[in-house]
Amino acid sequence: MSSLYFDNSATTRIKPEVLEAMMPYLKLEYGNPSSMYTIGRSAKRAIENARINVANLINANPNEIYFTSCGSESDNTALKGIAYKNREKGNHIIISKIEHPAILNSCKALEREGFEITYLNVDEEGFVDLNQLETSIKNNTILISIMFANNEIGTIEPIKSISKIAHNKGIIFHTDAVQACGNIPIDVKELEIDMLSLSGHKIYGPKGIGALYVKNGIEFESLINGGHQEKGKRAGTENVAEIVGLGKASVIAKQGLNTHIRYLSMLRDYYVSEIERRIPNIVINGPRNKWGLDNSLIAKNKTLNQNYLQRLPGNANFSFLDIEGNTLLLKLDQMGISASSASACSSGNPEPSHVLTAIGREEATAKSALRITFGEDNTIDDVNYLINCIEKIILETNK
């Protein structure tokens, strides 16, 4: 039985070109980037070239990119780094109720240290309540962190509106863009983003590598102390091969972004239309509106107007009310299909998804969710097989 993969929000397959770019730094180019001799200097140049490539993906300056081990470390560094650096200015942080566990659990840790956290509500499609955001700001608010795009339901937040609200009050704005980077255009300058987290394995790069963008002029405390690496903000010998891999994946993502968006949105919209046509008793989770691309914006590779873009192109999340989600997942797995019911970081948690609960889903509805996230390797034939399998499982369940 062939295996079909529909869980690209959890991780993506590393591209052959990325692996090829990494291999020299796993074999011959093994020098320590801090060393002065030839192979050390070569490793250092490779890191700096990768820094340029990652910066270009989000229109940042290379010296604003800090390499980390993953998106979760980037999130931890952003929240705790700003909190500790600005403790004398204030202790209040604002996030949403549907953030990734790396944000939620970082804030819980900060609460135990005396910081105050406001958790913003979202509406039934997952959009942050901007009015609540404005009224939640206090004199001691030091940071607002709202994810760019949700990992479960694909909702793309109104980032520019949020950044303006933050900056009107002189507050630093961070966004977890792990799901957004490589899937939609991002321009940190246009969107006035102060800090941004991204991860390699979400953009067809290797696992174990991420990056944190920090706008020049913003100071933060380092979480890993030791040597001088990453401008003294993250000690430890750099993971050269994976940094190179992230850089190569960033180049490929930027160059192929228009095609990527159109192809994934086509697969997603076909899947959604067929599921709604063929399977009863379902609820879609996340923004209802269709893709509605403004092709002139796509052609310019600029940040998409929020009026045209509200959901990640490859994301589809339905609750199939006639079957429990984990049961559906197991039956699909037996048919050679990999999918998920929530984020990979929440797997094994018996509680319903905090994202689906936050958008108002009852427990039974939340526990019947199936998240499908398409990737560049998927085909229409794959999608048809997926739909046929879901239909067959539902019919057999209702016999």
Give the helix/strand layout:
Blueprint: E1 4-5, H1 16-22, H2 38-58, E2 65-68, H3 71-85, E3 92-96, H4 101-112, E4 116-120, H5 130-136, E5 141-145, H6 159-168, E6 172-176, E7 195-199, E8 210-214, H7 240-255, H8 257-278, E9 282-284, H9 295-299, E10 315-320, H10 325-334, E11 337-338, H11 354-358, H12 363-366, E12 369-373, H13 380-397
Parallel strand pairs: 1-11, 3-4, 3-5, 5-6, 6-7
Antiparallel strand pairs: 2-8, 7-8, 9-10, 10-12
Helix pairs in contact: 1-7, 2-7, 3-4, 8-13
**Residue fraction in strands:** 5-15%
Number of structural units classed as domains: 2
CATH fold name of the largest domain, please?
A: Aspartate Aminotransferase, domain 2
| Main sheet: strand order | 2-8-7-6-5-3-4
The residue ranges in which pLDDT falls below 50 over 5 or more consecutive positions are: 290-307
Overall pLDDT confidence? 92
**CATH architecture label name of the largest domain:** 3-Layer(aba) Sandwich
Helix and strand pattern: EHHEHEHEHEHEEEHHEHEHEHHEH
- Specify Rg, calculated over alpha carbons: 21 Å
